[in-house]
Amino acid sequence: MSLVTEATADNVGNAPQLRSQVKRQVLTILGSTGSIGTSTLDVVARHPDLFSVFALTGAKKVELMFEQCVRFKPTYALMVEDAAASRLENLIKATDLNTQVLRGSKGLDDLAAHPSVDTVMAAIVGAAGLSSCLAAARSGKRLLLANKEALVVGGELFLSQVRTGGAKLLPIDSEHSAIFQSLPEDPTTWNSQIQKIILTASGGPFRNRDPNSLHSVTPLEACRHPNWVMGQKITVDSATMMNKCLEVIEAHYLFGLAPSKIEVVIHPQSIIHSMVEYKDTSVVAQLGTPDMRVPIAFGLGWPNRIESGAKALTLQSTPPMTFEDFDSLEHRARFPGLLLAWQVLGARPGMTGVLNAANEVAVHAFLAGKIGFTQIHEVNLRTLDQYEPLVPHSLEDLLELDARARATAEQVIRALD
Ligand code: NAD
Ligand code: MG
């Protein structure tokens, strides 16, 4: 099993006398300028005695990265885009900061695997984060995984690198954090004790929309999530429910459970973040306000609990919690993409990566106004139909598979015109 379990007796609790003895965790935050990245830094800033920042990485947002450098004084700041790195370098030169600016995606792996680093927050969006996740896994880091696409693409290879590298994999996705918090400590007991896991889904902005009108959805409408503030790609994925599809695949790999033991229920209020049903029919759930700082603080602090900054849940004043069967005809028509999770998990290894690549290309094309909302699913389906991957055995195989599936998806999009 890849998920961590060994709670250490001398490190339990959050009493001040213990905190002062705990070694500060040194962090690399991949994707620090994104939604998860900024929430992570918000939690980190509340605990200067527990964490220090070694490296921050981003793609384009120079001003935000500069502010983060001033505040957290990392040793390295990497910008993927060359022009952005040059601008950051100029801004930093005008200060007395010692932060060294790196450029291009090549340095991401080194910052994830650097010997000075204890913990890596993987918060890059998409398969672009795969290589750095594997680098952190191989070098035995504590790996806080927000970047679900990396696990969806990496699959068994990702897990084997976690095992051989001796890394500790902690889920940051709120549903998977909820399940992890609801599971027994010993992973070897999971398969025999668990009846199923139940992932909750808000249903996004189109839960009640007439499925026949979804073709006219605009990017602006799709980017308005009712409960969560997130990056653009995951927000569109939530509107199609492809996010839940990726999360079913993520849950399968993280918890080593058969796809038939993973269920999805629609829970529009996003208060219960997911549940585990045991053999005796007991259901254990994790609840909280919808704020990603909670699972982030859980991952950063594990096995301790640390303050997250989130608003506490007041059950008396929360709206009544409701649940809807995903498996109704209406929801199946609204969200056809979700079912692809079980299909690709039942197909040959590599198909999860093909689906992810197609979806990344399709979401990008939708946001650019090149295809309609319901065509995202069409692109995903047609790409899966047209592309049979070889079983991937290495990072190179995975990257090649990703590139080919993207090319196929682009062709499919051109053929839609
Ligand atoms: P975001 O778009 O807000 O941020 C993405 C980050 O990745 C940014 O720092 C960006 O600069 C960087 N980035 C983008 N393209 C890159 C590339 N090619 N190479 C290197 N860096 C690149 O996204 P987000 O919402 O923070 O999501 C990050 C990941 O966390 C995604 O995989 C998402 O599914 C997952 N996640 C997010 C949330 C959430 O609430 N936002 C919740 C659960 C899981
Ligand atoms: Mg989630």
CATH structural architecture of the largest domain: Orthogonal Bundle
Counting helices, strands and paired strands, the structural category is: alpha/beta
Across the major sheet, the strand order is 4-3-2-1-5-6-7
Strand content: 5-15%
Element-by-element helix/strand order = HEHEHEHEHEHEHEHHEHHHEEEHEHHHHH
Q: Classify the fold: give the CATH topology of the largest domain.
A: Rna Polymerase Sigma Factor, Chain: A
User: CATH first level of the largest domain: which class?
Assistant: Mainly Alpha
The beta-strand count equals 12
Number of domains: 2
**Helix share, percent:** 40-55%
Ends apart, CA distance between termini: 46 Å
- Tell me the Rg in angstroms: 21 Å
**How many distinct helices?**
18
Overall outline? globular
What do you see in this structure?
The structure is a single chain. The protein has 417 residues and is an alpha/beta fold. Helix content is 45%, strand content 15%. It folds into two domains: 169 residues, NAD(P)-binding Rossmann-like Domain (Rossmann fold), CATH 3.40.50; 202 residues, Rna Polymerase Sigma Factor, Chain: A (Orthogonal Bundle), CATH 1.10.1740. A seven-stranded parallel beta sheet has the order 4-3-2-1-5-6-7, sandwiched between helices. It has a five-stranded mixed beta sheet with strand order 11-10-8-9-12. Strand 1, helix 2 and strand 2 form a beta-alpha-beta unit. About 4% of the residues have low confidence. The site of magnesium ion (MG) has 4 residues, from helix 8.
